[in-house]
Write a structure and sequence with these properties.
The protein has about 260 residues and is an alpha/beta fold. The chain has 2 domains: about 10-205, Alpha-Beta Complex (2-enoyl-CoA Hydratase, Chain A, domain 1), CATH 3.90.226; about 210-255, Lyase 2-enoyl-coa Hydratase, Chain  A, domain 2 (Orthogonal Bundle), CATH 1.10.12.10. The chain is about 50% helix and about 15% strand. It has 11 helices and 9 strands. It has helices at about 30-45, 70-80, 85-100, 115-125, 150-160, 160-170, 175-180, 190-205, 210-220, 225-240, 245-255; strands at about 10-15, 15-20, 55-60, 105-110, 110-115, 125-130, 135, 175, 185-190. The strands form 2 sheets. The protein has a 6-stranded mixed β-sheet, with helices on both faces. α1 (about 30-45) links the parallel β2 (about 15-20) and β3. α1 packs parallel to α3 and α9 runs antiparallel to α10.
């Protein structure tokens, strides 16, 4: 896998790949290059069996401050008005890459996660926050609506009323408050943030990752369909899981009273 990215740092530790958005002087605001590179690496991860868990985080003081608005200003100055919806197609490709990745994707958030950066974190399967994290659906502050899937992910995580409040008022939500309302899975002191994220990701990487891919498919499909359709899909996916080597290993390990050694097959 490539590691020579202009706006990313990529590091692999066993089955865990950590991708760090690396524009700290801009609080990791998205420009076209970083967006393209992040999408590229996540799409590559989906095909790489050596990667069993992906962590996305930010360099310096923040996870990410959203879209780099100087990009829009420069584009308007040189090319005239443009349709933002056309620009969003690239973000939607990133969102689908995260959601469709057949392995766990974890956002590790410290400092600010605002605007599109916030919603990229929400697109991930799970989120760990430091206690200095600040989540901001900042779009209304500049007269816009949440994009990058925010309108889809936010109400599913925190409920309709809270999603409307966060989107309209655009107030900061702290790391501890984000844990309380279900926006993140875990909030820890900043001093423990790196070690907790590492341990969490390594635990996932050692798990039955083929099963994890099927779990993602079941859960993400089931929130959009009726009970009958969900139960039908449940049976289909359980058939697939039952045939995996990891299922056989899990049962054998249970009977032998030893830790399972999963391979992702």
């Amino acid at each position: 896998m490539r590691t020579d990215y202009q706006c990313l740092l990529v590091e692999q530790d066993g089955g865990v790949l950590t991708v760090t958005m690396n524009r700290p002087e801009k609080l990791n605001a998205f420009d076209d290059t970083m967006l393209q590179e992040l999408t590229e690496v996540i799409e590559a991860v989906a095909q790489d069996e050596a990667v069993r868990c992906l962590v996305i985080t930010g360099a310096g003081r923040a996870f990410g401050s959203g879209q780099d608005l100087t990009t829009f200003a420069a584009r308007s100055a040189t090319a005239g008005p443009f349709k933002v919806s056309q620009h969003l197609v690239s973000y939607h490709r990133l969102v689908f890459a995260i959601r469709n990745a057949p392995k766990p994707v974890v956002a590790a958030v410290h400092g600010v996660a605002a605007g599109i950066s916030c919603n990229i974190a929400l697109a991930c399967d799970m989120r760990i926050a430091a206690d200095n994290a600040r989540f901001i659906e900042a779009f209304a502050r500049i007269g816009l609506v949440p994009d990058g899937g925010g309108g889809f992910f936010l109400p599913r995580l925190v409920g309709m009323g809270k999603a409307i409040e966060m989107s309209m008022l655009a107030d900061e939500v702290s790391g501890p408050e984000a844990e309380r309302i279900g926006l993140v899975n875990k909030c820890v002191p900043l001093a423990e943030f790196e070690s907790t994220t590492k341990a969490f990701a390594q635990r996932l990487a050692k798990g039955p990752t083929r099963s994890y891919a099927l779990i993602k498919e079941l859960i993400y499909t089931s929130v959009q369909v009726d009970l009958q359709t969900s139960l039908r899909l449940e049976g289909e996916l359980q058939d697939k899981a039952f045939e995996t080597a990891d299922h056989r290993e899990g049962v054998t390990a249970f009977l032998q009273k030893r830790p399972a050694q999963y391979t992702g097959h």
